Amino acid sequence: MSEVSLLKQALRSVVAGQVNAAADPYRPAWHLAPPVGLLNDPNGFVQHNGRYHLFYQWNPLGCAHGAKFWGHWSSVDLLHWRHEPLGLAPAEEYESHGCYSGSAVVDNGQLTLIYTGNVKYPDGSRTAFQCLARENERGEFDKTGPVLDLPVGYTGHVRDPKVWQHNGHWYMVLGAQDLNLQGKVLLLHSADLLSWVSLGEIAGSGLNGLGQFGYMWECPDLFRLSDSDVLICCPQGLPAESDRYQNTFQSGYFVGQLEYDAGHFPHGDFHELDLGFEFYAPQTTLSDDGRRLLIGWMGIPDGDEFYQPTIEHGWLHTMTCPRELTLENRKIIQRPAHELQRLRGEEQAWQGIAQDAPVWDITHAEVAIGTEQPFSADLGGNMTLAWDGEWLRLTRKNRRSGEQEQRVWRGALRHLTLLCDRSSVEIFINDGEAVMSSRYFPDLPTQLTFSGKQPITLHHWPLADCVIE
Ligand code: FRU
């Protein structure tokens, strides 16, 4: 379809659907959600001229995956976002089945997008091109076209370029599937973003001491944190174990040292980034003040996503809150970006036996829980969080099967922070040692009720609305 037709269709969809979407009681008060249609991965997260830019995988035409567009928001404070001109529409032959995920860099002062042009053929086969687009004076993106064809030795599943600069050179990590159907991450370099030279595979299934580790690795991201290099990636095809890899697809990281010249990345074990029901395809950026910030998709590409009730209001999925990453003992610690504290209203504090705790409204609120003792908490009749002294369990009813399902963390609990926003809760364990991000669809207004006979310390702040302008 021509770009004009695609934009006309997208506009009709937004104009026709925005009232219904905005009226959804489950629409977040302060998280990013699509105006209409389906949102998935965060893309092109970058700070440029004092503004953060966040693009997003977007199907404006319906609550289904398909030929993705790039939506575009910007913000000076990570709280108040505004809509920017649509980033990319899948109009060209080299991106006929979607402008898939990618990243943004500032090249000679110009915001530049590097993304995957996804192409499917009638016989079921596919290919992928890595493409460039540069911002013009109207805040729109002019496409340069493909700068990298499918590398030899891989299937058509090669995508999600993340580009950064190091010692005056551009580097790219790419998610890939080799011809033996093993997931890999490729490293490439370039002097000008236009011609790319391969430095080989730096990680993947069967590499660096890993056994079989998935048939495809999506959305890689590589960055320096403290004295290490961190590779984030999303392996697909890891079998579920009793206390990890519980979601359909995983999202996690390796800590190591990237040897740029040799193209080697010796690394440690894989750790999941988030243990909740919905988290995938995160992307990071370095802020002007030196923080490594991460935003994830609060969704998972599995069949269950289509049972979420917001579909009746014509929209699906949200982003996570922005988080700051640090490395402690070779593990990533995630904390909500400090800017979020500005959303806090009046603080209430309480201390006593858990079951005597006041019932608080957590429709959009932050709750801090201090305890090492067992307790359980009901979130709006739709989700329970229970700590038994060894396991923290988050339980809800699966919307497709009606069966109970749970996600777990094991350790020594001291503290929890819950960030709630109408249909989502992000749980930060022990000040960011682990996180559980999940969507839920509670009774509204949502009440938090504690049970248990042990002492607990609680703080509560309502969080202000932050409408996208
Ligand atoms: C991850 C992903 C990416 C791809 C995009 C398509 O969720 O599958 O690998 O680029 O979504 O929307």
TrEMBL record:
GO molecular function: hydrolase activity
Entries under InterPro entries matching the protein: ConA-like_dom_sf (IPR013320), GH32_Enzymes (IPR051214), Glyco_hydro_32 (IPR001362), Glyco_hydro_32_AS (IPR018053), Glyco_hydro_32_C (IPR013189), Glyco_hydro_32_N (IPR013148), Glyco_hydro_beta-prop_sf (IPR023296), Suc6P_hydrolase (IPR006232)
Pathways involved: Glycan biosynthesis; sucrose metabolism
Main location: cytoplasm
Domain Glycosyl hydrolase family 32 C-terminal: 415-445
Domain Glycosyl hydrolase family 32 N-terminal, chain residue ranges per copy: 31-336
EC code(s) of this entry: 3.2.1.26
Catalysed reaction, written as an equation: Hydrolysis of terminal non-reducing beta-D-fructofuranoside residues in beta-D-fructofuranosides
Stored SMART domains: Glyco_32
Keyword annotations of the record: Carbohydrate metabolism, Cytoplasm, Glycosidase, Hydrolase
Annotated compartments: Cytoplasm
Role noted for this protein: Enables the bacterium to metabolize sucrose as a sole carbon source.
Family: Belongs to the glycosyl hydrolase 32 family.
Designated name of the protein: Sucrose-6-phosphate hydrolase
Taxonomic source organism: Hafnia psychrotolerans
